[in-house]
Structure prediction request, 246 residues.
Amino acid sequence: MADAGILVLRAFLALLAMPIYLLSFLGIWEPFCKKIFFPFFLDKLSGLHENKAKKYKQELFRNLPDFTGSSGELKLLEIGTGFGMNFQFYPSGCKVTCTDINPNFQQGLLKNMNKNQHIHYERFLVVAGEDLHQVPSGSVDAVVCTLVLCSVRDVNTTLKEVLRVLRPGGAFYFLEHVAADPASWKYFWQQACYPTWKLVFCGCCLTREIWKNLEQANFSEVKLQHISITLPCTPIQPHIVGYAVK
Prediction:
């Protein structure tokens, strides 16, 4: 019965989003989404999510200075920088390399860079999380990734790249929305929304069990907590937050 209900709701949502499906079929939606729609949507959602997540981020990034390397300067790489919503939580003087597969966040990114002059911005790379070849192996003390692993093409390959660029003893910080309990109504709605949500929001996957990928990666230690961040009218309430040490 549940499977039938999911199929019916998927069909209903697809009908509502039929113009987008048509634009996707014609090859128009993806470039429009990346350049205009998704940056606009993310700008609106980021502020709301930030208000809900701020206390978790403050606690999460509190120990970042502990991972400063022998140079005396914390070298940090962020995957999927977006508008730079995390800059405010980084310690003064740290050197940040920004990366994002989508280069269309300039206006919001520059705004947050100007607001956060306490950190040094090294460079911005337009690269996918699965291929950070421009970053030397073992060259950074910390990697940060928030609300990004839901939309990378391959979570495991991304985590391998994280481990490669981290120096031994470095840390990977994450905050991601994840799949709900399979026995819950939240999971039912995630399953129902999945195809249309993924199409509309640039490949964002609702049902990834990212904690399993982290636990199976070759980190020496993983500190992870399941939390709930409620965003009205969205199926992305369940989150994980924490850090993992190489």
Observations:
- The chain has one domain: 1-61+74-81+92-245.
- DSSP finds seven helices and seven strands in the chain.
- The mean pLDDT is 93.
